[in-house]
Write the structure tokens for this entry.
Amino acid sequence: MSANMKRLMFIVSFIVPTFLLFCLFTVYPILKGIYISLFDWSGSSEHMDFIGLQNFREMISDPVIRTAIYNDYFLVFWKVIGIMLLATLFAVALTRFHMKKAAFFRVVFFFPNVISVVVIGVLWRYVYNPNLGFLNSFLSLFTDEPVKTPWLGDEKLAMWSLLPPSIWAGIGFYMILLIAAILSISDSLYEAAEIDGATQWKQFWQITLPLIWEQMKVSILSIVMTTLNGSFIIVTIMTEGGPDNATQVMGSYLYQMGFKQFHMGYAAAIGVLILVLSLITTAALQRLMKREVIEIS
């Protein structure tokens, strides 16, 4: 066997198992979901009625679907803003400002990422509890009468109440990514900027931000994808989609239709919609955030 053939076989021995696992755990479930979406099926019976695109036509007139899509992008928009602003602020503060005990604060800010989302959801449910919750108790210190605001029970407040735990849970991970990116920037650039009289703000805008843009772009895309595909966890734990479907997102509605109402075909159609919206959103963001990569030799 020639050297080139041996090299090819070596490469194939690594690629093929990975490709097979990808097909088994990613491609096959996607194709299976698309297939199921064409049927009227309870999810447990052997009988499946082929109905073509009826599930998708039903989604067009389903008001909960419209609410769920709006809520998903509501979370995407505010999570991107909240997480990126705070993660960038903390990353810059812990690197460029040379804060004392920076290692301690890194651990504190990262701590929510090592906690299960279930624990975070339960913890914040107690924070928002109308009678015993910390938030109402704290606000009552500044009022004559006790505050009894039902944060998770009010249709106008429920979605806004889901933002703090969602943002708090994600700051630490992206802060670590940005810290690593900032630490890779040469100190000579900042020294030259200081000699030229550049303020900290100008150094951040002209040096730090352009050189960590690729990491920020990856972080934004990650937040968007995890929100569109994983926000149902905290929604299910904290509100179960209520009150009156006001906090329903596509993932939680998929779970409700598939595993509570046993409308598995419709749930699969919602899954296909999530996939399509995720792909479109990712492609649009990549195009919007495309810019020239700056490299420093």
